[in-house]
Amino acid sequence: MAILREIEVRYKFTQVDCDITGKLLDAPHKVYSAFNFLKFEPKEKFVVINLSNQHTIMNYEVVASGTVNSVSLRPSEVLRTAVIINAPAVILAHNHPSGVPTPSQSDIQFTKRMQKVAELLDIKVLDHIIIGEDGFVSLNEKGLM
Asked: Which CATH number does the domain housing residue 69 bear?
């Protein structure tokens, strides 16, 4: 007899006492305010923030941890939870352990690739925030996406 695997997706809700759940993320400085804890990470961490139609945080996921100067991931890993929870929009964020939030060519290219993939799934990539030691850069504000 052959075995067939079935995938079951269940939502688990946990009541939390924090100020990021349901927070409106309509400006890059608000993303930085909510996720600036990434500036203390010694390695690159890539986060996807899943948003509702009103651009409030539904959830976030650390989708990859890298090295001191890079992180490797696939678009499917980034958009997995957005697809599962039916999120219409996402914001991408990652840190630069060097402390300097200047986007690399790789950051810019990956963001554009993510926009194309997300568009096929009817998901909007609203921004990509790079977090440094003393500040951040919004690729959307810089016109790089």
From this structure: 3.40.140.10
